[in-house]
User: What shape does this take?
Amino acid sequence: MSTAVVKIVLHLYVAGRTPRAERAIATLRHICERELANFECDLVIVDVLADPQLAEARKILATPTLIKEQPAPSRRIIGDLGADPAELLAALNLPPVSPEAQLSTLP
Assistant: This one.
């Protein structure tokens, strides 16, 4: 039986260090450190004011925007990310279910 580690990649796009951006960063760090502690979790924070080309390439129209890159399928959440971590995890379809767990639920 394989014990492959599922990697979670999250990209957070913010516009400067506003209270809303700080709240989103704090919420996502909490989620990565506590709720997803059993997974390899990469949180990439991009300031669209410092890197507008990247924001344009990713079609970021509003901030904060969170994109779950991995595992598939990709998800995008726009707006207030200071909400309940459980709701945010559900919207992102996280934590991921391991392939072994999926197979064990098949009839």
The two ends are 19 Å apart (CA to CA). Residues 99-106 have pLDDT under 50 and may be disordered.
